[in-house]
Design a protein that fits this description.
The protein is mostly beta strands and 114 residues long. Helix content is 0%, strand content 50%. The protein has no helices and eleven strands. Strands 2, 4, 5, 6, 9, 10 and 11 form a seven-stranded mixed sheet that branches. Strands 1-3-8-7 form a four-stranded antiparallel sheet, with no helix packed on it. Strand 7 and strand 8 form a beta hairpin.
Length: 114
């Protein structure tokens, strides 16, 4: 099983990034996919998730209206489009399949700074 995140980097406040998480080794279409983020000294924060069926999505209040989660089951990939980025969005972003006891990627760093 592998989850490989990509798309992180350094961006100025107000900018955009799109994170991708490519999955392999399990039936991707059957799993809820979630993006989390974490900064040193803080608890891990659930950012957004998308269900396996029906496309229902959930967003943390801190990102609602700025971030969009989507998935392409044909490509076994989940995305996080991040717009209007703020310095407080700086974190390592992780994708997760299933529950917190499920599968995790290695993370991708996002830095929002001028």
């Amino acid at each position: 099983v592998q989850l490989v995140e990509s798309g992180g980097g350094l961006v100025q406040p107000g900018g955009s990034l799109r994170l991708s998480c490519a999955a392999s080794g399990f039936t991707f279409s059957a799993y809820r996919m979630t993006w989390y983020r974490q900064t040193p000294g803080k608890e891990r924060e659930l950012v957004a998730f998308i269900l396996s069926v029906g496309g229902y999505t959930y967003y943390a209040d801190s990102v609602k209206g700025r971030f969009t989660i989507s998935r392409d089951n044909a490509k076994n990939t989940v995305y996080l489009q991040m717009n209007s980025l703020k310095p407080e969005d700086t974190a390592i972003y992780y994708c997760n399949a299933g529950s917190t006891d499920g599968y995790w990627g290695q993370g991708t760093q996002v830095i929002v700074s001028s």
